[in-house]
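In this supplementary section we document a worked example of the pipeline. Step one takes a protein sequence of length 202 as its only input; no multiple sequence alignment statistics are reported here. Step two produces a three-dimensional model, which step three serialises into structure tokens for compact storage. The input and output of this example are shown verbatim.
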Amino acid sequence: MPKLLISTNSKCSFCSEFLPNLLPSKICLLLNKIAKQDRNPTNEDRHSFCEIHYAETTIVSDGIQKGYLTEINFELLESRIIQMKDEFLNIINKKIGSYYWNFSLEICAEPEYYGSKGLNIIVDEVLVPKTALHLIFKDKSNITLEETKKIMEDSRDFKENNNQESDSCELESISKRDINEEKDNSKESDSEEGVNIEKVKI
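The serialised model returned by step three reads:
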């Protein structure tokens, strides 16, 4: 297929949003994947591409400007959470207050015995948000609890799009072999950080 350089300030052919001159790797991989198909792009292709380029060029970029962590040491995460054991026990034993704990008890509303529903609520509505809140508070020094809560809420989309287990998580239709092939091809044809993308007929 003949190649065409995506020029500066070019628009997305699907949604007409402007794309950066140097495209992030996720966008390049997906666009090349679509270009190699024998059929016209489906609505799912269009939606996936626009969703990813919006996340990469807007949500992730905005999060980086706000100082959100782009890399998390997940190997240390378990030990950091274990260190919070005493605080969680104090919440359970009502020695210290917790908005999330009180909220979950109101939802559960089963005296003395909480059952499986109560367990799920306590884990999802107390332990998970409380743990995240505590970790963010530790990561960001010199901020208040309210500022920590705001960061946790504001960074939700950023975390979904940036902190993935692997670069290909959002591109479920792209296999590891496809990704490796694209990287090999880009090395042969590109000497710059940006990638020349084949034009897609849509």
